[in-house]
Amino acid sequence: RSNVSWDTLTLDVDDDGVATLTVNRPDKLNALNAETLEAMLEALDEAEAQDVRVLVVTGAGDKGFIAGADIGHMQELSTPEAQEYAELGHRVCDAIESFPAPVIAAVNGYAFGGGCEVALACDLRVASERAVIGQPEIDLGIVPGWGGTQRLSRLIGDERARRLVFFGDRIDASDAYEYGLVGEVVAHDQLEDHVAEMAKELAEKPKHAMQVAKESLNMVHEEPQNAGLAFERRAWSSLFGTHDQREGMSAFLDKRDPEFE
Ligand code: CO8
């Protein structure tokens, strides 16, 4: 069990290997400034170094998951400065996407702009009934810049992505569910426990197989299908001969619960 804090972020790791990264800037609805993004990169490295099995990403306070990139910070940026900021946001989203364990976004409130994009980079999204989600950048005279133009249509389809990005609409949790933007909606006061249960269950699965599953599924977005299928064949075969593969299959045949490494 460990706890690491930055000024605007905390990382808690429990005994089951479940890490929780909480953006902690509630007075600004957890808007992501450069300092917080840098801290997120460090927290992701730290979680990886601690070999965690599942990572939960959420926001502090009663209202916010992450209300977006920090508009105060962006207002005066020049193009080269904006590029740097975009790259920093991309590094965070890429690090979440390639994190070697499942990442769950517990969307406990506003997830706008960069906040929606952070959620999109996670493997799974669970929303509280109070969540409101959107890519409202168009009304700030910009567009999604941390992967939203790419990951959103892959997740929910091109037409729906265009609607969200063009109109800048903010949709509630049930519409987000209908759009396929979140996998599940739960009562606000049950979100934390529900996600903790999911995380615990995932943390008990065989680690190496889970990593391979995530990496293979990520290939869908990174490679043409023939390359993805070739990757899957290689990755699948590499699991044979591991303790967890032998144990998982023996346990099935012996009609008992497996004991994974
Ligand atoms: N950035 C900075 N501060 C913010 C942000 C934000 N995104 N969102 C909220 N805040 C601040 C408010 O300014 C306010 O601060 P203060 O108390 O000092 O005035 C505080 O948080 C509380 O906010 P509100 O008083 O507005 O609270 P409400 O409950 O009335 O409203 C909303 C909450 C609906 C979330 C509202 O704050 C809002 O609409 N926020 C902006 C949402 C938004 O447009 N997000 C998208 C930002 S753009 C983006 O994310 C681009 C990503 C790509 C970046 C590319 C880099 C180049």
Automatic annotation (TrEMBL):
GO MF entries: hydro-lyase activity
Record PROSITE patterns: ENOYL_COA_HYDRATASE
InterPro entries: ClpP/crotonase-like_dom_sf, Enoyl-CoA_hyd/isom_CS, Enoyl-CoA_hydra/iso, Enoyl-CoA_hydra_C
A single GO BP: fatty acid beta-oxidation
Record keyword Transmembrane helix present: no
Keywords: Lyase
CDD domains assigned: crotonase-like (cd06558)
Cited PANTHER family: ENOYL-COA HYDRATASE, MITOCHONDRIAL, ENOYL-COA HYDRATASE-RELATED
Family: Belongs to the enoyl-CoA hydratase/isomerase family.
Protein name (database record): Enoyl-CoA hydratase/carnithine racemase
Biological source species: Halogranum rubrum
